[in-house]
Specification:
Radius of gyration: 22 Å
Helix content: 40-55%
CATH superfamily of the largest domain: Winged helix-like DNA-binding domain superfamily/Winged helix DNA-binding domain
Structural class: alpha/beta
CATH architecture of the largest domain: Orthogonal Bundle
Distance between the termini: 39 Å
Oligomer: single chain
Shape: globular
Strand content: 5-15%
Order of helices and strands: HEEEHEHHHHHHHEEEHEHHEHHEH
Largest sheet: 4 strands, mixed
Number of strands: 10
Strand order of the largest sheet: 3-1-2-4
């Protein structure tokens, strides 16, 4: 009997595969109850694996205890729920705070030692508490810029005590400076080209800060619509080196190490994109896993929408996100391209 009750209805075969490889990413999404011992464990438990016919998959510890099982003393599966609750509480505290809380204060508020909670938070969200807080505040700034014509007023409305702090935070984010967010690329030079790849023609564009658009089957007109006030120019010799590196990602697979990027997004979109960049080449994650990594376990649809808003195909690898049933799911540039990209990455030595 298999009783899976999770946010994206994990298939029993997927659950067994995750348990067999001790996949930490599935901790908290279900528990594994062993009928021969009467114990339930989290998927990453280091103990020896039982025979599959002696295993039941249950939604959580409550379901396992109701069925007569007791928690494993080695992996302590019920602590996963406590850890998740602490992270969710911290996310709420950071979201409500005007200033980013200090790590010591944040850890104390949720009942953990600072260093342990720092590791716990980053493992759950993909970023540190400080980085998450910066993104939250920068997201407020972006919203404030939509409501006021003065950048300085928006900076103070977002909770910054000085413009210099706002621009320092902006340098940590993946986006343009605040004025460019508001003004469609005004005063920004964007260089571009259409390069040939093994999967078809690619539009590649970048500001002085980094790549701002990578797509298939687009051209200069599409770029101009996205940045109507930018100074759009043909790429030069220096830009050609960047183009070669991007095309190599398509043709050879691999991780986009060291490529500068310059894209805009809300705080949540930024977290989703960082979670995408953390997926190793050749591996995949579900939309539910990405939502968890972005710090909002219940925002599965929003995580999918953030993938759809990705401006940098390949470099921010939204093609590595699949449906919970293992099927490829949607992709802005066609499912065939998505399948081929994954195939290339998985066959890469």
């Amino acid at each position: 009997m298999n009783d899976i009750s999770t946010i994206d209805r994990i298939d029993p075969d997927q659950a067994w595969a995750a348990f067999a490889r001790r996949d930490r990413r599935f901790d908290g999404r279900f528990v594994v109850a062993v009928t021969t011992t009467g114990i339930y464990c989290k998927p990453s438990c280091p103990a020896r694996r039982p025979r599959r016919e002696n295993v039941r998959f249950l939604g959580d510890g409550n379901a396992a205890r109701s069925a007569g099982f007791r928690p494993c003393l080695r992996c302590r599966p019920d602590e996963v729920a406590r850890d998740r609750q602490a992270v969710e509480q911290a996310l709420e505290l950071i979201g409500k705070a005007q200033e980013v809380p200090a790590l010591d204060a944040l850890a104390a508020a949720v009942g953990y030692a600072p260093h342990h909670f720092h590791r716990l938070f980053k493992r759950a969200t993909g970023v540190t508490p400080a980085a998450y807080g910066r993104n939250i505040r920068a997201g407020r700034l972006e919203a404030a810029l939509d409501e006021t014509h003065r950048v300085t007023d928006a900076i103070y409305d977002a909770g910054y005590n000085a413009p210099s702090r706002a621009y320092a935070d902006a340098s940590h984010r993946m986006g343009m400076t605040p004025s460019a967010w508001k003004n469609g690329g005004k005063d920004v030079v964007i260089r571009w080209t259409v390069a040939q790849s093994s999967l078809g023609p690619m539009l590649i564009a970048a500001t002085e800060k980094g790549l701002c658009r990578i797509s298939f089957d687009e051209g200069e007109a599409d770029l101009s619509r996205r940045f109507p006030k930018a100074d759009i120019r043909a790429g030069d010799a220096h830009f050609a080196e960047l183009v070669e590196r991007v095309v190599a990602l398509v043709d050879q697979g691999g991780r986009a190490e060291g490529l500068p990027i310059d894209v805009q997004g809300t705080a949540f979109q930024q977290e989703v994109w960082e979670a995408l960049r953390a997926i190793p080449p050749g591996e995949t994650r579900t939309y539910a896993q990405i939502a968890i990594a972005a710090g909002r376990p219940g925002a599965v649809r929003a995580a999918g929408s953030a993938c759809g808003e990705n401006q940098l195909a390949i470099v921010i690898p939204c093609h590595r996100v699949v449906r919970s049933d293992g099927k490829p799911g949607g992709y802005a540039y066609g499912e065939e391209r998505k399948v081929e990209l994954l195939k290339k990455e998985k066959s890469r030595p």
